[in-house]
Amino acid sequence: MYRMLLALTLSIAAISLPAAATSAPNVTLTGVVGPGFNISLKNPDGSSVSHLDPGTYDISVTDNAPIDHNFHLRGPGVDMSTPLEGTAAVTWTVTFVDGTYTFLCDAHPAQMKGSFTVGVVQPPPPPPPPPGKLSGKVTATAISLKTSAGAKVKTLVAKKYKLTVSDASNKQNFHLKGPGLNKKTGVAAKTKATWTLKLKPGKYTYGSDKNRKLRGSFKVVAAS
């Protein structure tokens, strides 16, 4: 009777206990180098890898090029490569995190390269605004500094500007001064010049070094 009860208890326990959990195998990506100047990284379905979820992957790399080619995978937390000399067949287990990864041939990085993103990737910062455009002119009797709209410069916002100067006199010059800035054309010759300026908050003056009556000024204010 005792044996029957023990056997029944064990049978119930076997039925009640859940099966041991088994982890799913890693997704395998395939990297190939060669023939020729070809390099690729593909998903199991044969499509090119462009974006992955964060996690652990197996990377099966076949390097078919016997010389001067390799497969170099790098990015956040990953930096693995096959040798440049000889063929190779390797499998790496790597963990990808949010970010951008690249794969390339170290000997031909401009020709043989690719990249993909993982998880959430921060967008690149916006490009800096283009420089403002200004035009300066000096003649034997007048000097001016104008905006791209043709208005006299009175107040500018601190940033980069491209100033095109037309010095139409061989007796005067165009001299611009201000915080950290001192630019001028020559006095004895007519000339044209283009200056890229980084204007800082403060007062600026422009004029001719040979005629004190040819003067102008403006102020630069901090960007809001």
Topology:
Layout: H1 2-16, E1 27-33, E2 39-42, E3 51-52, E4 55-63, E5 72-75, E6 78-81, E7 88-96, E8 99-104, E9 113-118, E10 132-138, E11 143-147, E12 155-157, E13 160-167, E14 175-178, E15 181-184, E16 191-198, E17 202-208, E18 211-221
Parallel strand pairs: 1-4, 3-9, 10-13, 12-18
Antiparallel strand pairs: 1-2, 4-7, 5-6, 5-8, 8-9, 10-11, 13-16, 14-15, 14-17, 17-18
Question: How would you explain this protein's 3D organization?
Answer:
With 224 residues, the chain is mainly beta. The chain has two domains: 26-118, Immunoglobulin-like, CATH 2.60.40.420; 132-221, Cupredoxins -  blue copper proteins (Immunoglobulin-like). 7% of the residues lie in helices and 48% in strands. The chain has one helix and 18 strands. It has one helix at 2-16; strands spanning 27-33, 39-42, 51-52, 55-63, 72-75, 78-81, 88-96, 99-104, 113-118, 132-138, 143-147, 155-157, 160-167, 175-178, 181-184, 191-198, 202-208, 211-221. The strands form four sheets. Strands 3-9-8-5-6 form a five-stranded mixed β-sheet, with no helix packed on it. The protein has a five-stranded mixed β-sheet with strand order 12-18-17-14-15, with no helix packed on it. Strands 2-1-4-7 form a four-stranded mixed β-sheet, with no helix packed on it. Strand 5 (72-75) and strand 6 (78-81) form a beta hairpin. The termini are far apart. Residues 5-10 have low confidence and may be disordered.
